[in-house]
Amino acid sequence: WTIGVQFTASRKFLTITPIVLYILTSFYTKYDQDHFVVNAVSLMTVLILKLPQLHGVPIFGINKY
């Protein structure tokens, strides 16, 4: 299979947006520990799934075909 161009403007935008939202939510919740953990786990999940090494890899049966 072919892997597309990795660092296009749209890919950079879709990577930076969750990071900015994470920083904003951490600030507005005053770094509450419960919110911080939930936001950190969700941010890591989003960023890990955007890695080029996971392109086309089925996660929990999604992208099987």
UniProtKB/TrEMBL annotation:
Membrane topology: Multi-pass membrane protein
UniProt cross-references to Pfam families, sorted A to Z: ORMDL (PF04061)
Principal cellular location given in the protein's record: membrane
Keyword Membrane in annotation: yes
An example Gene Ontology CC term for this record: endoplasmic reticulum membrane
GO process terms (BP): regulation of ceramide biosynthetic process; sphingolipid metabolic process
Iron as UniProt keyword: no
Entry keywords, A to Z: Membrane, Transmembrane, Transmembrane helix
InterPro entries per record: ORMDL
Localization annotation: Membrane
Oligomer status and interactors: Ceramide-sensitive subunit of the serine palmitoyltransferase (SPT) complex, which is also composed of SPTLC1, SPTLC2/3 and SPTSSA/B.
Function: Plays an essential role in the homeostatic regulation of sphingolipid de novo biosynthesis by modulating the activity of the serine palmitoyltransferase (SPT) in response to ceramide levels. When complexed to SPT, the binding of ceramides to its N-terminus stabilizes a conformation that block SPT substrate entry, hence preventing SPT catalytic activity. Through this mechanism, maintains ceramide levels at sufficient concentrations for the production of complex sphingolipids, but which prevents the accumulation of ceramides to levels that trigger apoptosis.
PANTHER family the UniProt entry points to: ORMDL PROTEINS
Family: Belongs to the ORM family.
Protein known as: ORMDL sphingolipid biosynthesis regulator 3
